[in-house]
Specification:
This protein is mainly beta. It has a domain at about 50-205: Lipocalin (Beta Barrel), CATH 2.40.128. About 10% of the residues lie in helices and about 30% in strands. It has helices spanning about 5-20, 195-200, and strands at about 35-40, 55-60, 65-70, 75-80, 85-90, 95, 100-105, 135-140, 145-150, 155-160, 165-170, 175-180, 190. The strands form 3 sheets. A 5-stranded antiparallel β-sheet has the order 6-5-8-9-10, with no helix packed on it. Strand 11 and strand 12 (about 175-180) form a beta hairpin. The longest helix has 17 residues, at about 5-20.
Length: about 220
């Protein structure tokens, strides 16, 4: 069962409504769908044993859903809000955090700090290449927020329809299980990591705008 058509229909309906209201959509509104594949039942949680990443960057998430990132000098590089209050959180390649709010150290040299070139796409276990990421489900359970403190960038991924959602980080894919769904609806969905790479690319370093030239330096080098 594919949910792409459902999300595309929703996005098409939302965009004109927001335009009529005279405002720009929020980052988590009108998202392009993900190709979630439904499966039977709910799989047992996968164990992932790894040492949590650490470093001079601090990510802080408050109970009201405010996310901030400070660099090693204490300068706030990101301050934004989630769609709702944080409900569940994981770090790196699937290490659950004991509480969805708090402050955690993150590195500056995570794999995505090099862009997609720092990822081994064909790895049997892709989870080590997710080191340095923060994953958060908010209490509306409609989107998954993924933050990359090293680059101070955030993306939002649309989640399947369900309640009491939980993430299962598997070597080859991300799985979403629901504790409660409408009658006849699936309780488990998954997407391969390679299917998420186009979205994860937005968490990598972004080139700044090109500097304008002048009469004395028509092609500036820096």
């Amino acid at each position: 069962m594919r949910l792409g058509a459902l999300f595309l229909t929703f996005a098409a309906l939302v965009a004109p409504e927001l335009a009529a209201q005279g405002r720009q959509p929020l980052p988590w509104e009108g998202l392009q769908p993900l190709d979630w594949q439904a499966g039977p039942g709910v799989a047992a949680p996968a164990s992932y044993e790894a040492t949590p990443s650490s470093g001079p960057v601090e990510a802080r998430l408050t109970v009201d859903g405010t996310l901030s990132v400070k660099d090693a000098r204490g300068i706030i590089r990101l301050q934004t809000g989630l769609p709702g209050r944080p409900l569940k959180a994981w770090r790196d390649g699937g290490l659950p955090l004991p509480a969805p709010s708090g402050a955690w150290p993150f590195p500056t040299d995570s794999p995505l700090s090099q862009g997609l070139g720092g990822l081994l796409w064909g790895a049997a276990d892709f989870r080590p290449f997710l080191r340095g990421l923060l994953w958060v489900i908010e209490d509306g359970e409609t989107v998954l927020t993924v933050a990359h403190p090293a680059t101070a960038r955030v993306i939002h991924l649309p989640l399947p329809l369900g309640r009491d959602l939980h993430l299962n980080f598997l070597p080859d894919r991300l799985e979403v299980g629901a504790g409660e769904v409408d009658k006849g609806s699936p309780r488990r969905w998954s997407i391969p990591w390679i299917g998420l790479l186009p979205r994860l690319a937005a968490l990598g370093p972004q080139a700044g705008p090109a500097k304008a030239g002048s009469a004395l330096a028509p092609f500036p080098k820096d």
